[in-house]
Amino acid sequence: MGRNVSYQRYNLNEFHINHSWCCYSMRDHACKYPCRDPLDDMLAFHEMIIASKAVVVGSPVNWNNMSARLK
């Protein structure tokens, strides 16, 4: 029984993705969903995640947690 499943694989280290500090804001007007930095590559990933049925993420485990790059 075959299934037509398509997938895309990305290495996040190959993209320019800044840490998102706006989600830590104490002012409502400073944090808007989704938090977007116009100077990085995350906008394309937001669109893919929203359109996806499932997302599988792999990360090394550092100090019992995912990597800082993934966070």
**Cα radius of gyration in angstroms:** 15 Å
| Proportion in β-strands | 5-15%
Total number of beta strands? 2
Low-confidence stretches: none
Number of helices: 1
Shape, per Cα inertia axes = globular
Spatial gap, N to C terminus? 37 Å
Q: How many discrete domains?
A: 1
Widest beta sheet: strand line-up: 1-2
Report the mean per-residue pLDDT as an integer: 78
Largest sheet: 2 strands, antiparallel
The sequence of SSEs as H and E is HEE
| Helix content class | 10-25%
| Sheet/helix structural class | little secondary structure
Give a quick summary of the entry:
The protein has 71 residues and is low in regular secondary structure. Helices cover 14% and strands 6% of the residues. It has one domain (12-66).
Description of the molecule:
This protein is largely without helices or strands and 71 residues long. The chain contains 1 helix and 2 strands. Helices cover 14% and strands 6% of the residues. A two-stranded antiparallel ribbon has the order 1-2.
Provide key terms for this protein:
little secondary structure, two-stranded antiparallel ribbon, 6% strand, 1 helix
